[in-house]
């Protein structure tokens, strides 16, 4: 997605040759018009999959997933990273290793918001090792639902996430794919 590549080139900051900081438009401050455009693009890519529900993970995934859910006209549910005291009912859960925080955490979704037998689209902001997406897939499948696809905003293709998810049989669609970081700049895979 050209618009997104442009923003990454103009505003993205590469940290330690490993992490891309895009908090001026994606992870902290949010550019609403860009998110609407990204939502339309993701919805278009999965329009023939009969998606019935979108699942993402707090916090950054929510803003990415919302315009997609509006475009597809389906419910959106986000996995929580900490169990809320308001979550008194039964939950589905999965353990995820955080790439940026370097620790394990439990992700949960209330069983009420993940009815059995639905076709689900998983959405996240970044794909690195694939831990977060894999954790969400396991959680969704434990509810008896089918993962119809995984939509990612920024994929770091030099890390093993895509390969891991594709090996497990999932359809992964990323709006931009980064081949490498070179001299603190992103080199993109041209598609
Ligand atoms: P994974 O689970 O695939 O290793 O990493 C994905 C998660 O880690 C995303 O949900 C995202 O929050 C975070 N993440 C991974 N790499 C980056 C990065 O380069 N920049 C930012 N801002 N977050 C990242």
Automatic annotation (TrEMBL):
<feature type="binding site">
    <location>
        <position position="27"/>
    </location>
    <ligand>
        <name>xanthine</name>
    </ligand>
</feature>
<protein>
    <recommendedName>
        <fullName>Xanthine phosphoribosyltransferase</fullName>
        <ecNumber>2.4.2.22</ecNumber>
    </recommendedName>
</protein>
<dbReference type="Pfam" id="PF00156">
    <property type="entry name" value="Pribosyltran"/>
</dbReference>
<dbReference type="GO" id="GO:0006166">
    <property type="term" value="P:purine ribonucleoside salvage"/>
</dbReference>
<feature type="binding site">
    <location>
        <position position="156"/>
    </location>
    <ligand>
        <name>xanthine</name>
    </ligand>
</feature>
<feature type="binding site">
    <location>
        <position position="20"/>
    </location>
    <ligand>
        <name>xanthine</name>
    </ligand>
</feature>
<dbReference type="GO" id="GO:0000310">
    <property type="term" value="F:xanthine phosphoribosyltransferase activity"/>
</dbReference>
<dbReference type="InterPro" id="IPR010079">
    <property type="entry name" value="Xanthine_PRibTrfase"/>
</dbReference>
<feature type="domain" description="Phosphoribosyltransferase">
    <location>
        <begin position="43"/>
        <end position="157"/>
    </location>
</feature>
<dbReference type="InterPro" id="IPR000836">
    <property type="entry name" value="PRTase_dom"/>
</dbReference>
<dbReference type="GO" id="GO:0032265">
    <property type="term" value="P:XMP salvage"/>
</dbReference>
<keyword id="KW-0963">Cytoplasm</keyword>
<dbReference type="GO" id="GO:0005737">
    <property type="term" value="C:cytoplasm"/>
</dbReference>
<keyword id="KW-0660">Purine salvage</keyword>
<comment type="subunit">
    <text>Homodimer.</text>
</comment>
<keyword id="KW-0328">Glycosyltransferase</keyword>
<keyword id="KW-0808">Transferase</keyword>
<dbReference type="InterPro" id="IPR029057">
    <property type="entry name" value="PRTase-like"/>
</dbReference>
<feature type="binding site">
    <location>
        <begin position="128"/>
        <end position="132"/>
    </location>
    <ligand>
        <name>5-phospho-alpha-D-ribose 1-diphosphate</name>
    </ligand>
</feature>
<comment type="function">
    <text>Converts the preformed base xanthine, a product of nucleic acid breakdown, to xanthosine 5'-monophosphate (XMP), so it can be reused for RNA or DNA synthesis.</text>
</comment>
<comment type="pathway">
    <text>Purine metabolism; XMP biosynthesis via salvage pathway; XMP from xanthine: step 1/1.</text>
</comment>
<dbReference type="InterPro" id="IPR050118">
    <property type="entry name" value="Pur/Pyrimidine_PRTase"/>
</dbReference>
<comment type="similarity">
    <text>Belongs to the purine/pyrimidine phosphoribosyltransferase family. Xpt subfamily.</text>
</comment>
<dbReference type="GO" id="GO:0046110">
    <property type="term" value="P:xanthine metabolic process"/>
</dbReference>
């Amino acid at each position: 997605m050209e618009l997104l590549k442009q923003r990454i080139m103009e505003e993205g900051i590469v940290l330690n040759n490993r992490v891309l900081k895009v908090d001026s438009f994606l992870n902290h401050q949010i550019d609403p018009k860009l998110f609407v455009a990204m939502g339309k693009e993701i919805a278009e890519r999965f329009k023939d999959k009969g998606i019935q529900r979108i699942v993402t993970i707090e916090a950054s995934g929510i803003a990415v997933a919302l315009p997609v859910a509006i475009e597809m006209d389906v419910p959106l549910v986000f996995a929580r990273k900490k169990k809320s005291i308001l979550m008194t009912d039964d939950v589905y859960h999965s353990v995820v290793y955080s790439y940026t925080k370097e620790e394990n955490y439990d992700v949960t979704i209330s069983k009420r918001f993940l009815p059995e037998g639905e076709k689900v689209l998983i959405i996240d902001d970044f794909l690195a090792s694939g831990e977060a997406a894999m954790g969400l897939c396991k959680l969704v499948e434990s509810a008896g639902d089918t993962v119809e696809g995984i939509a990612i905003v920024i994929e770091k293709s030099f890390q093993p996430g895509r390969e891991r998810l594709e090996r497990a049989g999932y359809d992964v669609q990323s709006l931009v794919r980064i081949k490498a970081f070179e001299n603190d700049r992103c080199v993109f895979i041209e598609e």
